[in-house]
From TrEMBL:
Nitronate monooxygenase that uses molecular oxygen to catalyze the oxidative denitrification of alkyl nitronates. Acts on propionate 3-nitronate (P3N), the presumed physiological substrate. Probably functions in the detoxification of P3N, a metabolic poison produced by plants and fungi as a defense mechanism. This is Probable nitronate monooxygenase. It holds the Pfam family NMO. Residues 174-201 form a coiled coil. CDD domains: NPD_like. GO terms for molecular function: dioxygenase activity; nitronate monooxygenase activity. It comes from the Bacteria.
Length: 353
């Protein structure tokens, strides 16, 4: 059976696959554009998106504002004007400026998590940009959407459910991950029911997208059967010709075995899933000195005096230095990737019934 298009208000993606935002420097214009060209929705991560700009070390915020437009325009060109959006962490310092800048350049969608994006509806007011919060529980979805309803009389254009098998930062406690994985399908059904009530309140369809551990067509079919309208995939696209990650980063994925996929403690106070290497072992027993603060997170999410290492610094090192001495975020199925491929080949595989 062929996959149905993903319809988000007046936006239509021929294939119901959204490419997840991966920062720093993993999902930029080349990957996002390639995914969009194949009929999906390409996503740019705003996390230090301007790290390759000359003024980045002097003024990271200005560099990021500049790069948002550059990367978006390039992605649109590659995509033949297909759908391109941004992933913006709610914990980002100057979150409002990032959202407004993405709207200004013409973002089709904005997906926002890593905290509750309470003010997101206000920040996109008057634009055509569609918005989606990332949620991990029916309770979280209900709290956020009720807040948006009461404060702005607005709701989500679509919702991304991120499960416990995702890569990077997770919206679950480390000690309950196994239980969360076992119970995720039941939680998805509850979230779907919660979202349906807001559809009735606002008289609109709110597509639900599942993210976290989605790897092949059987996974896609499984989540569609649970009531989702599409999926978000990130890890699967890393080891492609088009992915913006450096070759050494991709090689780390290819060489990873199942036992190398590990849970680390992030300085932002959340567990994260990454590939085991020298850095992941190092942070278990020592604090890594911060060379330079680039003001990436709001102060309530980062205590510079006590954090074990700087999240921006180590993610930058993963794409600018030896990734074995840096944090390599990856989803639970990263070990299943054993050779480089192309975005086109992945879409061909996933869309074949």
């Amino acid at each position: 059976m062929s996959l149905k298009p993903l319809v988000i208000d007046n936006l239509v993606a021929k294939v119901p696959i959204i490419q997840g935002g991966m920062g720093i420097g993993i999902s930029l214009a080349n990957l996002a554009g390639a995914v969009s060209r194949e009929g999906g929705i390409g996503i740019l991560s705003t996390a230090q998106i301007g790290y390759q700009e000359e003024l980045f070390e002097k003024s990271p915020l200005r560099a990021n504002m500049l790069a948002i437009e550059k990367q978006f325009k390039k992605a649109k060109e590659i995509a033949n004007n297909g759908l391109i959006g941004f992933n913006i962490m709610a914990a980002t310092f100057h979150y409002d400026r990032y959202v407004k800048r993405c709207v200004e350049v013409g973002a089709d969608v904005i997906i926002s998590g890593a905290g509750l994006p309470i003010t997101l509806p206000e920040l996109v007011e008057g634009s055509q940009t569609k918005i989606a919060p990332i949620v991990s529980s029916s309770k979280g979805a209900k709290v956020l959407l009720n807040t948006w309803k009461k404060r702005y009389n607005k709701t989500a254009d679509f919702v991304v459910i991120e499960g416990p098998e995702a890569g990077g930062h997770l919206g679950f406690k480390a000690e309950t991950l196994s239980k969360n994985i076992e119970q995720m399908d039941d939680e998805i059904v509850k979230i779907v029911e919660t979202i349906r009530s807001f559809e009735e309140d606002f008289g609109k369809d709110i597509p639900i997208i599942f993210a976290g551990g989605v790897f092949d067509r059987s996974d896609i079919d499984h989540y569609l059967a649970l009531g989702c309208s599409g999926v978000q995939m990130a890890t699967r696209f890393v080891v492609t010709e088009e992915c913006d990650a450096p070759e050494a980063f991709k090689t780390a994925y290819i060489n990873a075995e199942q036992e190398d996929i590990t849970i680390i403690k992030s300085p932002v106070g959340m567990p994260g899933r990454a590939i085991k290497n020298r850095f992941s072992e190092r942070i278990k027993h020592e604090q890594v000195p911060i060379e330079k603060c680039r003001s990436c997170l709001s102060y309530k999410h980062c205590d510079r005096e006590t954090i074990p290492y700087c999240i921006t610094e180590t993610l930058l090192n993963a794409v600018t230095k030896d990734p074995n001495d840096a944090l390599i975020f990856a989803g639970s199925n990263a070990y299943r990737i054993k050779e480089k491929t192309t975005v086109k080949a992945i879409f061909a595989e996933l869309t074949t019934a």
